[in-house]
């Protein structure tokens, strides 16, 4: 066990979901070590504790796992549970932390960001409830990283992380665990596996795209193994360190192979994709005239909430629902009908943890293809797919039928996100500052046939611990309930990304058949005008539309 002298690196500040930087940044000597020691120090040390470690298998994952287990040992941890091969999806890590009651866990992932030697790497800390560390802790980690002078590490040979079983580094027990088993067991307690098995046996079909990322092993074992879906149901199901040079972000822009397979008359009944660390989900049905039916994540959350009692785990009903502020208000309409509370939180899963722990919410979701429940404390991609499969199997309906019936009952919330990527940070900051500067004067103003009812900069007071998070996004609400939200991404590693979120509610089913971008056209124009996107960034069109 040695202590190594070091100096702080600037910028080790966790964003929306952990610390994300280029792989080359993490490869600098002491960079990862500094951050890991800062985590341990911010927690008041980890002597005698048990930690979970694993990641999404991206480039540099295995090296980072070795560093972390040696540092855990040198910092006096009693035990480290490591996913075999260094693999643990984000929801599986959450599951393992909870199931074994560990002190916490370290998840290595940059989620939907591309991987490989020139790609991104990331690290985040999850607390004992299995969820992302709250801001109080991430701020303490950052503070430690700025004053660090040394770290502890075992000078040991690399540990064999590919063989299940236990051994030790010094007096620290290292247990290499099956990364899928505990997660698969949990899912079987939640859903009606018999009904889903029967649905597949009756010839229904699914295409699940693992996008060469970490959901593959989970999807193979659960869908093709436990549920008897035919081989080939899971595509791109072997995790690769560079995700096959793809962008493991399950949305219409990047899940192009899935969208192609869901097109045409022979498309499977249901399609889904998951991201780098398997916490996101995109769900697709068979649409009309060979078009894929892309379900907006906000709608998916609302539909799962409205139908939750068809699933064994939620048969007794939901305690409440929660969504991030930019997520559409579709789920709020369901909550009103069910007579349960709906919470609006800042972007990022860490804000759901307290609501779930306190039993105030059962289902949570974000517009960024993230959905989850109180079964773990992370969003969970495959869980959402199993939830949909359970609904399809139990109702005997098609995806399109379920979606249409939902809109007829609750109205349709047209929704889209426009991203403007690669903006110089100063320009993006100037845009947000200018927008914030005029918020007070916006109410009553008109724009493209819309009248602004209210405008503010979203601040959140956690109803459980009273902590306050400010400047979480500018929201502009129009008369009639349409909304535009502006915020800057907190997960990127280069420049800034402006996210513009657009929502329009249409109650009358006669108005539910428009293409989304057409239905939102006046809002899109208003967004450009209000924020001066072109003047500030030089971009007249978004780089990604989801
Ligand atoms: C994005 C999404 C946010 C999500 C976060 C982490 O953050 O918008 O909803 O919680 O990614 O998801 P941002 O700050 O870039 O908008 V993941 O699957 O990347 O861990
Ligand atoms: Co993710």
Compact summary:
The protein is an alpha/beta fold. A 7-stranded mixed beta sheet has the order 2-6-5-3-4-9-8, with helices on both faces. It has a 7-stranded antiparallel beta sheet with strand order 20-21-24-25-26-19-27. Strands 11-10-12-13-14 form a 5-stranded mixed beta sheet.
Strand content: 15-25%
What is the CATH topology classification name of the largest domain? Alpha-D-Glucose-1,6-Bisphosphate, Chain A, domain 3
Mean pLDDT: 96
Uncertain segments are none
Strand order of the largest sheet: 2-6-5-3-4-9-8
Largest sheet: 7 strands, mixed
Describe the structure.
- The protein has 546 residues and is α/β, with parallel strands linked by helices.
- The chain has three domains: 177 residues, 3-Layer(aba) Sandwich (Alpha-D-Glucose-1,6-Bisphosphate, Chain A, domain 3); 228 residues, Alpha-D-Glucose-1,6-Bisphosphate, subunit A, domain 3 (Alpha-D-Glucose-1,6-Bisphosphate, Chain A, domain 3), CATH 3.40.120.10; 134 residues, 2-Layer Sandwich (TATA-Binding Protein), CATH 3.30.310.50.
- Helices cover 32% and strands 25% of the residues.
- A hairpin with a 6-residue loop joins strand 22 and strand 23.
- The longest helix is centred in the C-terminal third of the chain and has 18 residues.
- It is globular and about 70 Å long.
- The model has no long low-confidence stretch (mean pLDDT 96).
